[in-house]
Amino acid sequence: MGSTEKYELIKDLGSGNFGVARLMRNKKTGELVAVKFIERGDKIDKNVEREIVNHRMLRHPNIIGFKEVFLTPTNLGIVMEYAAGGELFDRIVRAGRFSEDEARYFFQQVICGVDFCHRSGVCHRDLKLENTLLDGSPQPKLKICDFGYSKSTVFDSVPKSTVGTPAYIAPEVLKRTQYDGQIADVWSCGVTLYVMLVGAYPFEDPQDPRNFRKTIQRIMGVRYSFPTSMRISVDCMNLIQRIFVADPGRRIRIPEIKKHPWYVKNLPEDLKEDVARTSPQPEPHQSVEDIQRIVSEARVKATTTAPKNDLEQELLDEMNEDAYNI
C-alpha cells in the first residue's frame, strides 16, 4: 500500500538535498508520522539502504521509531515516529544554554540511546543536536534520529571514512584510518554535552566559526575552554575531560560514563537498568528482505506516467524546483 491510500498530508517538516520531510496522518489509526521522501533513482544509494536497515532494528524509547518504507511513482517514502517537540538544537538556541541539571537530563537520554545502538552493533557516526529530537510531552523525551552515516557490525565493514559534522568529529576520524565508531560516538556525545552547557561549540573559533581548517586543528589538539564567567561542577568538568581525550584507547567508554558521579545524579527511574527497557514501538511489519527489495525497486528512476494525485504532483514539483538538504 502506497502513501496515498494509507496516509494523508498534514504539512511540510523540512527539506534537504535529496528530498522532503512531511508530517502525515495514518488514515486508519489517526497516528501522526514523519515521512522522509527521497527521489527515486541515483539518490537511493547504499547509504540510504544502510540507514533504513540499521534503523529498523533499533527499537528503544530514546531512538525515533522506524515504521515502514513504501514507493510512489516518483519517490521512496521512509515512515518514522513523529517527534512533536522538534530538535534539541532549537531548544538550546531559544534558551541560550542549559543549567547542569537540564543538560544532564538530556545527556542521560542520549547516552541510553547510544548505548542501545552500540549493544545492537550499530555506531551512529553523526551524533549532533540536530539529530536529537524531542517528543511533545511536558517532560520531553529525547529521540536519536538520522542513521544515514551509521555502520553496523552485522552488515558493514569497519569504519574508516571521514563522515559526520565538523564540529562533532573525533580526532581519530579525521586521520582517515580505521577507527572504532563506538568510541568516536562518545566524543560526539561530549560535544553535545558541552554545547548544552555553554551554548557554543567547543572547538570552533567564535570569531571565525566557518573556518573548518581551524576547527579541525583545534579538535586534533583538543583545544577547548569554558567561559571564565561560567560556573561548572567538578564532576561535570571531570566527565568532559575524560571524553575529550585524543587517544581513543584512553577515552572514557559508555559503561564507565553510566557509572560516573555526574551522570548518575538524579538519574530517572526509567533510565535505570536500561538493558531491560523495551520500546513502545511495535516490531516493523516489513522484514529486512522486504525493505531491501523495495529499496532496490526505488533505484529505478521515477516513472514517466502522470502522478496519481495531488500529493504526488506536489512532491514532483518540489523535487524539480529546488535543491534540498535534510
From TrEMBL:
One of its GO terms (molecular function) is ATP binding. Residues 7-263 form the Protein kinase domain. It comes from the Eukaryota. Keywords: ATP-binding, Kinase, Nucleotide-binding, Serine/threonine-protein kinase, Transferase. Transmembrane segments: none annotated. The keyword ATP-binding applies. ATP binds at K36. Its EC number is 2.7.11.1. The keyword Kinase applies. It catalyses: L-threonyl-[protein] + ATP = O-phospho-L-threonyl-[protein] + ADP + H(+); L-seryl-[protein] + ATP = O-phospho-L-seryl-[protein] + ADP + H(+). Belongs to the protein kinase superfamily. This is non-specific serine/threonine protein kinase. It comes from Ostreobium quekettii.
